[in-house]
Amino acid sequence: MQAAPVRATAIPSFTDALRAVESILMSSGQRTARRNAWTSVMEDRRRAKDRVEAQRVLDQSLVQPSFAPRP
Description:
By secondary structure, the protein is mainly α. It is built from two helices and no strands. 0% of the residues are buried.
């Protein structure tokens, strides 16, 4: 009984397959525009997450002051 042959080439990921299809269907300018737009969306999401976190910290600091001077 022989062992199954080992595959020498890596199987492309789903992302690699999508990029291959994208390169066939879109011109390089369209690809660049789409990637720039996606990068912008991701940056907006990151900033929104940071704003929510900052608001949460501010709200907590108003409810529970970390330092209260004695009279």
